[in-house]
Amino acid sequence: MRTKIHDTTIHYIQYGNEQGKDYVLLHGWGQNIEMMKMLGDPFQKEYHITILDLPGFGESEEPNYVWSVFDYVEYLHAFLESLSIKKPIIVGHSFGGKLALLYASMYPVEKLVLLAPTFKKSTKDTSMKTKVLKTLKKVPGLNKLESFAKKHIGSTDYRNASVTMRQILTKHIQTDIQEECKKIKCPSLIIWGTKDEAVPYSNAKELENLISDAGVVTYEGCTHYAYLERLDQTIQVLKSFYQ
User: Fold this and answer.
1) pLDDT 10s digits, 107-128
2) Is-contact 50 13, C-beta < 8 A?
3) Is residue 49 within 8 Å of residue 19, measured between CB atoms?
4) How many other β-carbons are positioned within 10 Å of the β-carbon of residue 235?
5) Does the pTM of the predicted model rise above 0.85?
6) Would you tell me which CATH number, out of the four given (3.40.630.30, 3.90.1310.10, 3.40.630.10, 3.40.50.1820), belongs to the domain 2-242?
């Protein structure tokens, strides 16, 4: 499905129980709907699921100027309002986790699931596709996802991105939202791998301390894609958290 919000067309899917609570999933940088769908499918009997390609990724249009993460959140809010979605459960990975944090600091959220979100200023190289594919080859059991990741990760990574998306990425990694995180009041679950090279595991405890009602689930030996590496465990943890 597609709709136009603020002159930018967005691609999204909706499925599941139309009478259930709204459940919104936000992917990471350079990714798309498919990278989050495996966290939506197990809950379709209970929840009304919305997964979107964030502007500039997948089949959604790029922003027509250099957006900040706050611009992304305002766009997300307008998009959810257009679908009459209020107080959803939000799951966000990495960049999507940063947007989830900001959204929850500004608007009502039922519960928040944060998969190694970025929330501090970073100076790291942000070309993710090569790093991710190397990770998939190294991690036992995850190499089976390599072909999937080649198709779905990094279609607009830094090296291949447009000038606008490169500038957006630079602005994103230079934006610190720690003060905003302190405003979050909803129950928040943080999942992080101890071998995360993109966003260090040490950030997990820092984020837990910033949010008033938060807890960390640690995945020993897992990377920035811990939620995929232990997908069955992630689904069970989420089921428990949602009860």
Assistant:
1) 999 999 999 999 998 755 444 5
2) yes
3) no
4) 16
5) yes
6) 3.40.50.1820
